[in-house]
Amino acid sequence: MSDKSDAYWRDNLTAEQYHICRERGTERPFSGTLLHNRETGIYHCTCCNKPLFQSENKYDSGCGWPSFDAPINTDAIRYLEDSSHGMQRIEIRCASCDSHLGHVFPDGPKTTGERYCVNSVSLAFQPDATIEK
């Protein structure tokens, strides 16, 4: 969980980053800069730079947001029940700083059966990066 104040986040994030990462907003579908990214590397949290996903787990789900079949490790993501907007979903957040990432759904590929649907704004991509699991 983040020990940073709301003022810190307002001062260090763009208005769009703040809205999505701290206020649980969502970018428009098919608008994210990382949606079609095919480079090899690591996707980090925009807010705290912790590694969250690897490019090898990214796939095109057709949903309009970057999709992954698994996080980089079991400790990277925090899961919360979300009943907003009249839906029952599982929200995903960065386990380190509590930044809103998106949601996970049980309709992913056969590899894991999960689809981590993530806002591009919530992620910072580092090309050609590797990390030990």
UniProtKB/TrEMBL annotation:
User: What EC number(s) would the UniProt record show?
Assistant: 1.8.4.12
What does the cofactor field's note say? Binds 1 zinc ion per subunit. The zinc ion is important for the structural integrity of the protein.
Q: Which cofactor does it need?
A: Zn(2+)
For this protein, the record's SUPFAM superfamilies field holds: Mss4-like
Say if the entry is tagged with keyword Oxidoreductase: yes
- Can you tell me where the transmembrane regions are? none
Q: Which UniProt keywords apply?
A: Metal-binding, Oxidoreductase, Zinc
Q: Which GO terms describe its molecular function?
A: peptide-methionine (R)-S-oxide reductase activity
**What reaction(s) does this enzyme catalyze?**
L-methionyl-[protein] + [thioredoxin]-disulfide + H2O = L-methionyl-(R)-S-oxide-[protein] + [thioredoxin]-dithiol
The domain of life for this entry's organism is: Bacteria
Residues at which Zn(2+) binds: 45, 48, 94, 97
Give the residues annotated as active site.
117 (nucleophile)
Provide the top EC class: oxidoreductase
Domain (MsrB) ranges: 6-128
InterPro entries assigned: Met_Sox_Rdtase_MsrB, Met_Sox_Rdtase_MsrB_dom, Mss4-like_sf
Family statement: Belongs to the MsrB Met sulfoxide reductase family.
Q: Which PANTHER family does this one have?
A: METHIONINE SULFOXIDE REDUCTASE, METHIONINE-R-SULFOXIDE REDUCTASE B1
Protein name, entry field: Peptide methionine sulfoxide reductase MsrB
- Its gene is msrB
